[in-house]
């Protein structure tokens, strides 16, 4: 299984986390004026060159190169100047920032979803709001989270979804069999989950029922959001100006995790973001909440595993997604804007997506692909892949893409980590984190 953005599934997640940090550190440099200008009247037959930064490596880069050549063949007047754009995906934001300042930036670039708000604030993005209303685009086939990420303030649509994912419950069959436990089912509650984690734990032999990140990074934070949402909570207020996670829903969610980590001692507390996955592969952790990028490691490691949707609260099995986008940029040139939009729409259509995202191991972008031969092939090769595809229906909320999200993530990440390590109570920790987040978001 191959993923874009990096050379391994785990580093793919690491790069996404790095993207949240980069968005915070570079937001101040993104302000700028609009492009220099070009064709003021659309001529779809005029020769045009569009520059695309793919953010891809290895198999994914080769795949998109082949697709770009196909598009050029079908549209002889269009040349696609395609390159990765930077040596790693997380460096694209810095390069875009420098490009905005020097008026040298691409027509289209891969972008982490956490950058979307900053990119829109730059004044350089192309607004395709009218384009997505066209029936041929089939905008509703993208998940709500993916659509929301592409329109960070709700005022403009700045691109198309590029990669979608979600997290489910992965369970180690070897450890479940050893403990004499029935495997998790799709209707599991968090009480079922907690009880199983406790029974799976064998402290004498350093075996844990569950693994959770306490690094304080976005890995810590985004694993928490499904708990919050399933309890009816929100990350931000409706106007996006205040943190709302210190609600009763948030306290209940963190109390559950604390009960498991501190009282039951059934949770492996991972300071690194990487060890819990490795320990699951080697039969030392019974359950983890992770995504499709984990499946390659499990196949290589020969792990006997299963995948189900996340345990739920009152029948709510919401999960979290970290969609990335193809951001489109405005050069005040009607021809470049038209063909950039056409290429992005074509690339993210079901037919091309099955040969690109699905072919390299990512989840399909569109709901219409769920029953495709490409998805069936991937599911046969990597058991559980189809569960993550179906789990897209449980992606109902969008992680904020506002400039204050990075600071909020740091604040709550530290609070979660402290509480799970026995330092502080959930209510006080979350309330203090919310105050810190509010203060940072107003800067």
Features:
single chain, 443 residues, globular, five-stranded mixed beta sheet, alpha/beta, 42% helix
What is the secondary structure topology, with strand pairs?
Elements: H1 9-26, E1 48-53, H2 58-74, E2 78-83, H3 92-102, E3 108-111, H4 116-121, H5 144-150, E4 159-163, E5 168-172, H6 173-179, H7 190-200, E6 208-213, H8 218-230, H9 248-264, E7 267-270, H10 275-281, E8 285-290, H11 295-301, E9 305-308, E10 324-328, H12 334-347, H13 350-355, H14 373-381, H15 385-390, H16 405-420, H17 426-441
Parallel strand pairs: 1-2, 1-3, 6-7, 6-8
Antiparallel strand pairs: 3-10, 4-10, 5-8, 5-9
| Major sheet description | 5 strands, mixed
Distance between the termini: 42 Å
- Rough outline: globular
The number of helices is 17
**Averaged pLDDT:** 91
Helix content: 40-55%
The chain-level structural class is alpha/beta
Neighbour order of strands in the largest sheet? 2-1-3-10-4
Strand tally, please?
A: 10
Low-confidence stretches: 1-18, 27-35
SSE arrangement, N to C: HEHEHEHHEEHHEHHEHEHEEHHHHHH
Could you tell me the radius of gyration in angstroms?
A: 22 Å
Q: What proportion strand?
A: 5-15%
Describe this structure in words.
- This protein has helices at 9-26, 58-74, 92-102, 116-121, 144-150, 173-179, 190-200, 218-230, 248-264, 275-281, 295-301, 334-347, 350-355, 373-381, 385-390, 405-420, 426-441, and strands at residues 48-53, 78-83, 108-111, 159-163, 168-172, 208-213, 267-270, 285-290, 305-308, 324-328.
- With 443 residues, the protein is α/β, with parallel strands linked by helices.
- A five-stranded mixed beta sheet has the order 2-1-3-10-4, sandwiched between helices. Strands 7-6-8-5-9 form a five-stranded mixed beta sheet.
- Helix 8 (218-230) packs across helix 9 (248-264), helix 8 packs across helix 16 (405-420) and helix 16 (405-420) runs antiparallel to helix 17.
- Mean pLDDT is 91; it is low at 1-18 and 27-35.
């Amino acid at each position: 299984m191959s993923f874009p953005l990096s050379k391994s599934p785990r580093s793919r997640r690491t790069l996404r986390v790095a993207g949240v940090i980069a968005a915070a550190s570079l937001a101040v440099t993104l302000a700028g004026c609009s492009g220099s200008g070009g064709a003021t009247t659309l001529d779809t037959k005029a020769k045009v060159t569009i520059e695309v930064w793919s953010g891809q490596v290895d198999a994914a880069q080769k795949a998109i190169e082949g697709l770009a050549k196909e598009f050029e063949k079908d549209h002889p007047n269009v040349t696609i100047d395609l390159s990765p754009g930077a040596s790693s995906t997380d460096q694209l934001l810095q390069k875009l920032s420098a490009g905005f300042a020097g008026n040298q930036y691409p027509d289209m670039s891969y972008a982490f979803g956490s950058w979307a708000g900053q990119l829109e604030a730059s004044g350089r993005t192309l607004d395709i709001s009218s384009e997505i209303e066209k029936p041929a685009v089939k905008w509703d086939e993208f998940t709500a989270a993916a659509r929301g990420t592409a329109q960070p303030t709700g005022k403009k649509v700045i691109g198309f979804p590029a990669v979608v994912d979600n997290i489910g419950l992965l369970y180690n069959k070897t450890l479940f069999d050893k403990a004499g436990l029935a495997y998790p089912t799709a209707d599991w509650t968090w009480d079922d989950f907690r009880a199983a984690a406790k029974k799976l734990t064998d402290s004498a032999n350093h075996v844990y029922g569950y693994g959770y990140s306490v690094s304080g990074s976005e890995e810590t934070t985004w694993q928490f959001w499904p708990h919050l949402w399933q309890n009816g909570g929100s990350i931000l207020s409706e106007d996006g100006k205040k943190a709302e996670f210190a609600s009763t829903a948030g306290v209940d969610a963190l109390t559950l995790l604390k009960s498991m980590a501190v009282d039951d001692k059934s949770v492996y507390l991972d300071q690194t973001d990487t060890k819990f996955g490795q320990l699951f592969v080697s039969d030392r952790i019974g359950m983890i909440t992770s995504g499709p990028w984990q499946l390659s490691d499990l196949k290589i490691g020969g792990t006997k595993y299963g995948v189900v949707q996340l345990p739920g609260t009152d029948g709510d099995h919401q999960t979290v997604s970290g969609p990335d986008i193809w951001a489109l940029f405005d050069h005040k040139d009607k021809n470049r804007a038209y063909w950039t939009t056409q290429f992005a729409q074509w690339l993210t259509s079901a037919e091309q997506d099955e040969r690109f995202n699905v072919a390299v191991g990512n989840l399909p972008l569109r709901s219409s692909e769920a029953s495709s031969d490409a998805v069936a092939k991937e599911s046969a090769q990597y058991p559980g892949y189809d569960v993550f595809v179906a789990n897209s229906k449980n992606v109902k909320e969008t992680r904020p893409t506002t400039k204050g999200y990075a600071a909020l993530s740091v604040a709550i990440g530290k609070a979660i980590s402290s509480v799970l390590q026995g330092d502080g109570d959930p209510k006080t920790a979350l309330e203090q984190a919310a105050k810190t987040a509010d203060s940072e978001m107003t800067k």
